[in-house]
Structure prediction request, 144 residues.
Amino acid sequence: MNLTIEQIQEKLTPFFAKKSYIAFGYLFGSRAKNRITPLSDIDIAVYIDAKKAPADLFELRLKELTALYQVFNTEKIDLVFLNETPLELSYNVLKNGILLYENDEQLRVRFFENTVRDYLDRKYFIDQRNEIIRRMMVEGSYFE
Prediction:
């Protein structure tokens, strides 16, 4: 599937607009970086407004992912809820992703500020952990 960012946005904007609980959404991964390969999927990250969403986010994710399969006519789609992603992934989505949809600017800005602040506060420790893991993998002791 060789869709441009604009074509993806054309499909996602009306899809997101029908969902009042989706505060904002990003395209991230290889497509956002314009490094598409035959193995590339469509990586989508959305923030769910807890005040408007159903309580069961797991069920909601399955429902929305199934609907996205139909919108794009493929199962090569990854959907993450930024409310639940690890800090490093959230930061990378914000840093390298492309904002495709926004229903609540205040919520997006607050999420952005909190994520960047928390990431920068923890960056030293994240880097230390990653270096230890890298060394253990090189030495072959990571999986022992």
In short: The CA atoms of residues 133 and 139 lie 10 Å apart.
